[in-house]
């Protein structure tokens, strides 16, 4: 993923606040490139850590060391709360500011991530507890308020 409009120190702080780890893969020019991973400090034996993704292969819920769709959504939402003009490019979408994030994020959860034999959608590949996965968290109202205040000017 590529991010611009956010200092690296802020990306790292936001990641800690959300409970994920941001790893830089490359910097240069105005873009920071990196990936987010589950927080390794939250490992507890064989239990999945918060926001840990599962594999779509073989129809089994196998843990992989990657962040699920909900974790990406929450992390990007936290970035846009503090940096409404940030731009984040992922393999699923290009969010140029808070308005595009609010308009596009939900559709990315329905993207196909499995195979013909074991179909799966991105938002289902996780170990998040059913009652903790809210498709639109309460803090989205705060994002809308930020967007609306910026467009009213």
How would you portray this structure in words?
- The protein is α+β, with helices and mostly antiparallel strands and 153 residues long.
- The chain contains 4 helices and 7 strands.
- It has helices spanning 8-18, 69-82, 98-108, 140-151; strands at residues 2-4, 20-28, 31-38, 52-54, 63-67, 87-89, 94-96.
- It has a 5-stranded antiparallel beta sheet with strand order 2-3-1-6-7. It has a two-stranded antiparallel sheet with strand order 4-5.
Domain module tally: 1
Task: Estimate the global geometry from the Cα principal axes.
Answer: globular
Strand content: 15-25%
Number of strand elements? 7
Q: Walk across the major sheet and give the strand order.
A: 2-3-1-6-7
Main sheet makeup: 5 strands, antiparallel
Give the topology string: H per helix, E per strand: EHEEEEHEEHH
Determine the structural class based on helices, strands and strand pairing: alpha+beta
Helical amount: 25-40%
Mean pLDDT: 86
End-to-end separation = 31 Å
List keywords for this structure.
153 residues; alpha+beta; 4 helices; 7 strands; globular
